[in-house]
Amino acid sequence: MSKIKITEVALRDGSHAMSHQYTVEQVKTITKALNDASVPYIEVSHGDGLGGSSIQYGLSGTDELKLIEAAVEAADFSKIAVLLIPGIGTIEDLKNAHRIGADMVRVATHVTEADVSKQHLETAKELGMETVGFLMMSHMAPVDKLIEQAKLMESYGADTVYVVDSAGALLPDQVAERIKALRQALTVDIGFHAHNNLSLAMGNTLAAIKQGATRIDGSVRCLGAGAGNTQTEVLAAVLEKMGIETGIDFYKMMDIAENIIAPILPGTQEITKDSLTMGYAGVYSSFRLHAERAAKRYNLDSRDILIELGKQKIVGGQEDMIIDVAAELAKKNKITV
Amino acid sequence: MGKVKAGIIGSGNIGSDLMVKLMKSETLELTTMMGIDASSRGMQHAKKLGLTVFDNGIEGLAENPDLVDIVFDATSAGAHIHNAGVAKELGKQMLDLTPAAIGPFVVPAVNLHENLHAENVNLITCGGQATIPIIHAINQAAKVEYGEIIATISSRSAGPGTRANIDEFTETTAKGIEQVGGAKKGKAIIILNPAEPPIMMRDTIHAIVEEGSMDREEIMASVQRMVRHVQSYVPGYKLRTEPIFDGNNVTVFLEIEGAGHYLPKYAGNLDIMTSAAVKAAEEFAKNRLKVAANK
After folding, report:
1. Of A48, A109, A160, A196, which has the fewest CB atoms closer than 10 Å, so is most exposed?
2. Kind and range of the H or E element at A35?
3. How far A59 CA lies from chain B's nearest CA (Å)?
4. Nearest CA in chain B to A331
5. Any known ligand binding at A159?
6. Which among B150, B193, B244 is the nearest to A315, CB-wise?
7. How many angstroms separate the CA atoms of A170 and A173, rounded?
């Protein structure tokens, strides 16, 4: 049966849920265990990618290069991936990550802005890295636009192009439509990255695989932004039942989820009202904790902030708009009271 | 008072916006447009305005050096290296709007007086022109240990040059935050937002000040003075909401609406570059006229 390659994102996407406070020890332990469970790719970076440590997104507790280095040392089977969002991280950051052993880079842009990834993808190719083009907030563009942008990434040298449902806003039919169109338009591999904000991560992932996606992201115990991603240990089990090979030992994955991840989670990764609202309103999943804090500061319902951010078509990375929108809402509330 | 003669290299969006602004200047007389495509919209418009038009770039000026005293370069970093060499040989003062950054960084509201005689000055980046004044203002009231800025611009106002080399923005702006803004460490982030109708340029500035030096009133007063100063040459520059103080951290929110001269109003990022360049050139011109009058 067909082969699906899974990338575990708990050490990158999960960094949002951990407020970017992963320690070298945690990364070492988790990577070693994932490596033993035969997970092919493990992504390690600040939640917002290389160079993401900032007041805007949250300062890293430990320099991400130290975390990447620890992961590289702990893995003899799994390949270590890093995320790079042009405008936040730079080619210099990429070269530093490559120097310490990162094998793959995923260069991420908003779904309509693929052309800013050209230099980074080309440099990664020159460095001999495996390359992925990562089209974030894919729900915000019509299918033809998505294809046009994916083709750009393909032309820059991406080995794989991902449809990234950063807001967890896509419905299964929409995922199927997008992957099917990309499968027809591109020759490179197609990937899919889900968020579980509408409880559709697994359903969407299966829809993507059915249409030809072969690269899939998961986060063990749903340790990702918002309500997390497709739960890796569950995905491994489901695919095994479907006769689709992933190479992952899902029994070991269950142990990692239960014994290593669960004890370090700041809270359970369930679909809270904020995550649900993000999926409903189409808001970037890493806004969850920032919106909670802003709601507290301005005495607002965090859902109202998230809905307004969705209305204003705020894109990934615009965390500063959360405070801006909250301040505006607080002002309006005062006037109406 | 007489005027100082000015010329523009590059007839694209930035060059065309400079053209509109310079035609209104009381101290600069725009005489020349140097492009490479005589049929381009900017070159055609320059002809209509009665300017001398060269379609062989700065080489035209080399053959007619008396036409211009101050040159604006709105081409690209690569082209600027050549243009800067020619301008230097001709003894022309150069305002560099490209990322080449051969000359010192200049932000008119911060360090213009120190660079009045520089043969080549660089305008840093749009995000730098918007945010470095605020970092500097905070730094005057309380020592800035770390300055971080986030510039959000509409996708439509990000030209192919910016897109092809987005690292130049983050790296150059971060350097400017340190060298001109005075922060010990600088960081810059740029976000492109494709929303329609296009959003205005927005900038957020986070500064961490030295332990024990936080003085809210002094910082507020300094920031407000600076905003008024920048408004004198970028009228659409304003604070969006009240600055936020949190421990040693200050956050300032800005919005920049363009003047709508040649470029649309949402392109505040481009307007602040051309406005800063014209402001700097006008000060250079005033200084030259003063020196000439005293001779």
Report:
1. A160
2. helix A24-36
3. 12
4. B241
5. no
6. B193
7. 8
Nearest Cα of chain A lies from the Cα of B47 at a distance, in angstroms, of 34
CB contact under 8 A, B155 and A112: yes
- Reply yes or no on whether the pLDDT at A93 is more than 80: yes
Over residues B176-189, mean pLDDT:
98
Give the C-alpha separation, B234 to A194, whole Å: 43
Q: A228-254: per-residue pLDDT in tens?
A: 999 999 999 999 999 999 999 999 999
B251 and B130 fall within a common domain? yes
Q: β-pairing, B144-154 with B185-193?
A: parallel
Give the contacts of B236 (CB within 8 A, at least 6 positions apart).
B255, B256, B257, B258, B259, B265, B268, B271
DSSP lists the bridge partners of residue B187 as B148
A38 is in an annotated binding site: no
Active-site residue (options: B19, B20, B121, B126): B126
Complex prediction ipTM? 0.95
Task: Select the CATH number that applies to the domain covering A5-264 from these four: 3.40.5.10, 3.90.1150.10, 3.20.20.70, 3.30.70.270.
Answer: 3.20.20.70
CATH code for residues A286-336: 1.10.8.60
Report the alpha-carbon distance of residue A133 to residue A158 in Å, rounded: 6
CATH number at residue B99: 3.40.50.720
How high is the pLDDT of residue A1? 46
Counted domains in chain B:
2
Please indicate whether residue B126 is annotated as part of the active site: yes
Residue B149 has φ and ψ, to the nearest 5°, of -130, 145
pLDDT tens digits for range A58-81: 999 999 999 999 999 999 999 999
Whether A327 has its CB under 8 Å from any CB of chain B: the answer is: yes
Q: Do A143 and A184 contact (CB within 8 A), yes or no?
A: no
Tell if the CB–CB gap between B251 and A87 is shorter than 8 Å. Answer: no
Query: Which CATH number does the domain housing residue B235 bear?
Result: 3.30.360.10
Cβ distance A323 to B244 less than 8 Å, yes or no, reads yes
- Does residue A90 belong to the interface with chain B, where contact is any CB pair within 8 Å? yes
Closest CA to A117 of A98, A102, A132: A132
Read off the pLDDT of residues B221-232 as tens digits, 9 standing for 90 and up: 999 999 999 999
Q: Give the residue from A275, A126, A259 showing the smallest Cα distance to A195.
A: A275
Residue of B nearest to A115 (CA): B163
Interfacial residues of B (vs A; Cβ cutoff 8 Å): 148, 150, 152, 155, 160, 163-167, 169-171, 187, 189-195, 202, 204, 206, 208, 240-242, 244, 249, 251, 253
Interval A163-190: pLDDT, tens:
999 999 999 999 999 999 999 999 999 9
